[in-house]
Amino acid sequence: MTTGELYIRAMGATRACLNAVGSGQWQDSTPCSEWDIKQVANHIIGENLWAAELFQGRTIAEVGNRLDGDLAGADPAAAYAASVTSASGAVGAPGAMEATCHLSFGDYSGSDYAGQLLLDTVVHGWDIAKGSGQSTRLDEDLVAACLPIARELTTQFRAAGVFGEDLPVAENADDQTRLLAMLGRTA
User: Fold this and answer.
1) End-to-end alpha-carbon separation of the chain, Å?
2) 29: DSSP letter
3) pLDDT tens digits for 66-75?
C-alpha cells in the first residue's frame, strides 16, 4: 500500500471513532491536554481540508485563512466525513504521491506528506477513542506503517519543540505502546 492508501484507511478508522462519540462527549478531555474531543476533531478536519488543497499544488499563502476557526461546527462527525471525501479524492488522484506539497516547513513529496497525515490521523483517532471511552486498539498495519514515520518526525522536529521526549516503555512493549510513547501518550 502507498502512504496515501494507508492515510485513506486511517481516515476510515478515525471516522468510525468519531461516529461513535456520544452527543454529550464532545467537550470531554483527551490525551491532548489542550484539546477536548471536538477540538481534536476540528484539528484533523482541518488537516484533511489542507491536504485537499496542498495535494493540488496550492501554497499556504494561496489557501490563506479560510481553513481557520471552527471547521467541526454543530456536527463534527459529519464535518469529518466531508473532509475525508475531500482528502481521499486529492490523495488518491493519479500522481499524488509524486506531487510536491508546499508545507509551512518546506516542500515535501506527496508520499512524505501523506505519511505525516497518516501518523496524525492514527494518533488523534486514538485520542478521540480514549477520550470517549471507546476501544483504543489500533489497526496493527497502520501502527507498523506509523512507527518509522514517528521515528523520523520526532527526530527531525523534537529540537523545534514539536515533540517531547519519548516516554519510557517496557522492553517487551508492543508496537502500539511504543508508537504512543514516542508521541507522549501512555497506553
Assistant:
1) 27
2) B
3) 999 999 999 9
Contact 122, 155 (CB under 8 A): no
Q: Which domain holds residue 82?
A: 3-136
**Residue 167 belongs to some domain of the structure:** no
Structural domain contains residue 154: no
Q: How many domains does the chain have?
A: 1
Identify the CA nearest to 11 among candidates 96, 80, 61, 105.
80
pLDDT band at 155 (very low <50, low <70, confident <90, very high): confident
The whole-angstrom separation of Cα 172 and Cα 178 is: 10
Query: What is the model's pTM?
Result: 0.95
Length of the chain: 187
Question: Taking the CB of residue 153, how many other CB atoms lie within 10 A of it?
Answer: 20
Here the CATH number for the domain that contains residue 83 is: 1.20.120.450
Amino acid (1-letter code) at residue 25: Q
CB 55 within 8 A of CB 113: yes
Angstrom distance (rounded) from CA 128 to CA 20:
10
Q: How far apart are CA 92 and CA 103, in angstroms?
A: 19
On whether residue 153 sits in a domain, the answer given is no
Instruction: Report in angstroms the alpha-carbon separations of 51 from 42, 85, 129.
Output: 14, 11, 23
Residue 128 counted as domain residue: yes
